[in-house]
Amino acid sequence: MYIQFLGAAGTVTGSKHLINTSTNPSGKDGFQVLIDCGLFQGLKEWRLRNWQDLPVPAREIDAVILTHAHLDHCGWIPRLVQGGFTGPIYATPATADLCSILLPDSAHLQEEEAAFNNKHRTSKHKPALPLYTVQQAQRSLTLLKTIDFGETKQLCPELTFRFTHSAHILGAGMVEITARINGSTRQLLFTGDIGRVRDNLVAPGKVVYSGPQEGESADLLVMESTYGNREHPHDDPRPQLAKLVSDTVKRGGSVVVPSFAVERTQKFLLMLKELMESGQIPRVPVHADSPMAIQAVSIFLKHAKEFSDDTKRMLAQYGSPLTWPEFHFDSSADESKKINDSRFPVIIVSSSGMATGGRILHHLMQRLPDPRNLVLFIGFQAHGTRGFSIKSGVPTVKIFGEQVPVRAQVAALEQFSDHADTPELLEWLRTFKKQPRVTFLVHGDPDASAQLRDTMEKELKWDVQVAHWLQKVTVD
Ligand SMILES: [Zn+2]
Q1: Measured in angstroms, how far is the CA atom of residue 319 from the centroid of ligand 1?
Q2: How does pLDDT run across 409-445, given as a tens digit for each residue?
Q3: What whole-number percentage of the chain has pLDDT above 90?
């Protein structure tokens, strides 16, 4: 049996880890399951990999297991299906629901980008094609099979798996695999993305289940390392957020917040509501300008059993976010355009979170040149994304082929992360019932993964390696 890292090795996107039960290095006779099937995002050298086939023919892969619904973990599924994959795609019920809005939306953005490139002849490909279409995304959703947290599923004679809570976003789970190899049993744990530890002071505003499942045991661990070289600020973001918003409104500016549509947007809206109700920020209109916003909120409300105590309290007090008086959910393009006409301060929360596409681009284009406005980042910005450039202080940024001057105030609040930082990862790893024989770090920029490896070796005395793209690891 072996594992091969087909993505999120040396970078934070494109998660794809293949398990093949074959004892033969060609892998031909094995059962093959892909843990996550994510899109590469960020730098062009990575994004180009979305257009390449996997080293394993898609039709030879027997099943997919999804850790969660972020596109860097599920966004390549329509390509896999197009390539001939016909097996089941296992996901928790909330992940499956979220995929049903996120994948068609991702396809829609790809179609829009291709149409834009064709209209403006900005692509060397004629005609420019989308990576996949809305129809292809819809078709791939029919392969989703839901598995509840804790339920054990037999994949093949050698493999079973179950989901445990990773506390990253709604529906997010780690994948515990039990493998039978030559008469003995091996536990493999794929963490996907790991959420903040169980402490509301450390992770204020957490929408879902607090803290990753403790007391895991694994012979082989494949773990994310996004924040392997950083610590989140441990102070409450609310006073800083209140000051940033109040100062901007006072000078007549608007606040533009690029935000991931799922989890981050819901968390941020809850916090704005709390600040408004307690009089810490003025009551200005809040626009959740994402075609997915209403659907995503509805899916959150449907899976309320995953909520943290704080979220339950907020909703009991103020009711559904969809009916809050200052909040507007702009589903149509016309509603979105109307926000541009607003002469008075507004708060616009829109996706994509790293400003790589979506409606946020129109808002940035319009609001970046005015120094009264504030662009506020509340999420991780990967190298090579527009968000990364703006956050790092470039004087101009290219949007729709135009150089747009960055004169607005730019600020970032790092506390909103849905990823555990290094001390939190160590805290979680210390709860393990036994030490893994080996740990592979994935899903991190090279510096972050290397530093986390060194820290884990020093603090825990574990055998830790940074996974390489296409590397094969024998499990015995
Ligand atoms: Zn994620």
Answers
A1: 27
A2: 999 998 888 899 999 999 999 999 999 999 999 999 9
A3: 68
Distance from Cα 124 to the centre of ligand 1, integer Å: 32
Q: Average pLDDT in the 59-66 region?
A: 97
Strand order in the sheet with 438-442: 153-156, 159-165, 173-181, 184-190, 220-224, 438-442, 464-466
Cβ proximity of 174 and 164 under 8 Å: yes
Ligand 1 centroid – CA 92 distance (Å): 14
Question: What is the 370 CA–ligand 1 centroid distance (Å)?
Answer: 32
C-alpha 144 to ligand 1 mean position (Å): 19
Give long-range contacts, CB 8 A cutoff, 24+ apart: 394-398: 397/364, 397/368
Distance 249 CA to ligand 1 centre (A): 32
Token reading at 456: 């884990």
Closest C-alpha to 14, from 82, 81, 104, 76:
76
d(CA 445, CA 138): 32
